Amino acid sequence: MINKRILTLLSILSFFLLSVSSFAQEAKIYEKYGVTVETLQPGLSEGDQAFLFKGKDQDGKTYQLKEALKKGPVVVNFFRGSWCPYCTKHLMNVQDSLGMIEAAGATFVAVTPENQERFAKLVEKKGLTFEMVEDSKLDIMNGFKVTFDVNQGYQDMLKKYENDLTVTNSIKRASLPVPATYIIAQDGTIIKRHYDPNYTERMSVKDILSTLQAQ
Prior knowledge:
It is built from nine helices and nine strands. It is globular, with a radius of gyration of 20 Å. The protein has helices at about 5-30, 65-70, 85-95, 100-105, 115-125, 140-145, 150-160, 165-170, 205-215; strands at about 55, 60-65, 75-80, 105-110, 130-135, 145-150, 175, 180-185, 190-195. The chain has two domains: about 1-30; about 40-215, Glutaredoxin (3-Layer(aba) Sandwich). By secondary structure, the chain is of the alpha/beta class. Its EC number is 1.11.1.24.
């Protein structure tokens, strides 16, 4: 009969090997999306207190989350940059439904590491009427724990399309946010989040509205 201690050790070893295999598979997927896995932050969770940030918007005015929350809930979206078609499409969807978000008592703000000159052009071109904020030192991204460093393969791919993150990012560094969305109650508590390193996935406007209307 196999000793119980040996069975326990075998069980622990099996769990360890499965964990290593699972991590390797996950890492391979994340690398596909440009993520240097060891730098990937886990994101704030529902129930956490939001990081009360401030920064310059597209008009050079100071945006403060603390002040915005006095008016009602705030939807914070992390925007990779005007070069990202998935991000732009999502923001256009939000713009199309912005009236309904505001009717639910909330406001929407997008945060990006891209320099203000570039995203201000996107705002004007697409007619976006919500505020966008420059995260010039990655303080906001780090405050929400959504930052990662971009791997070299993805950087090289972007450069083929004449986009060098060390040039287009305000901080001149190849770092991006997970394109996460956080819905924050007036007391600063995160009541809903969408966090997925897969940049093709976003929190839908439908989910945003259903969360706000349930409050």
